[in-house]
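I hope you will forgive my troubling you with a question about protein structure. The full record is reproduced below for your convenience:

——
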Amino acid sequence: MSKEADKLPLGVIFSEIIKGIIVFQDAVRAARLKSVMVDLIEQGYNYREIKEILKLSPEEIFEISKEIDVSYDAVYSRIFDPKKQNYPDKSDIVFLIDHGCTYREMQERLNISAGTMYRALNY
């Protein structure tokens, strides 16, 4: 050990080691949540369902979703299936907006009217 480490109390050394372990565990947890969230999105779950499944707060969902790189096509095909007449959930629309989609792009890609978009955002 270095001379500086010899001068530090043992409690300080252990405290720093524990802080490092906690930071590492938080990073691993975030990576796992991100991976699971992408899998759930691709399986067809919306953000409300994901929040309940993973027991996360809306803030945690938002922070993780900012880092997710899911293609718009996967999200669009999941939230609107013309055969089933599924309309987008408000949380899905907010997700797309947070990721840079414009209102017009969503309306065109989802092939829904302005009224339907308005209703989806206000329920």
